[in-house]
Design a protein that fits this description.
Layout (H helix, E strand, L loop, with lengths): L3 H6 L4 H19 L8 H10 L1 H28 L1
């Protein structure tokens, strides 16, 4: 029986991995362009609630996670 949960749990689901790598690549590309995530409306609300330092650390950790996903999952897509 194939459902959405079994397809996400299956580690060899290349479509899911490709989508995650593509979204991670988009996140890294946004960070490298002139579009600063700190200027987005959601970041401004987080900054008001928790402070600018928290917002910067939040975006930095998100960038590290995206880079890690690209490093870990891109070879699986290339060699599959």
């Amino acid at each position: 029986m194939s459902n959405i949960l079994s397809s996400l749990v299956n580690p060899s689901n290349q479509t899911f991995i490709a989508v995650c790598v593509a979204l991670s690549g988009l996140r890294v590309a946004v960070e490298l362009t002139r579009f600063s995530p700190a200027n987005w409306p959601i970041s401004k609300k987080i900054s008001k609630a928790f402070g600018q330092d928290f917002t910067e650390r939040f975006h930095r950790v998100g960038l590290y996670i995206c880079i890690g996903q690209i490093i870990l999952w891109a070879p699986e897509l290339l060699f599959a």
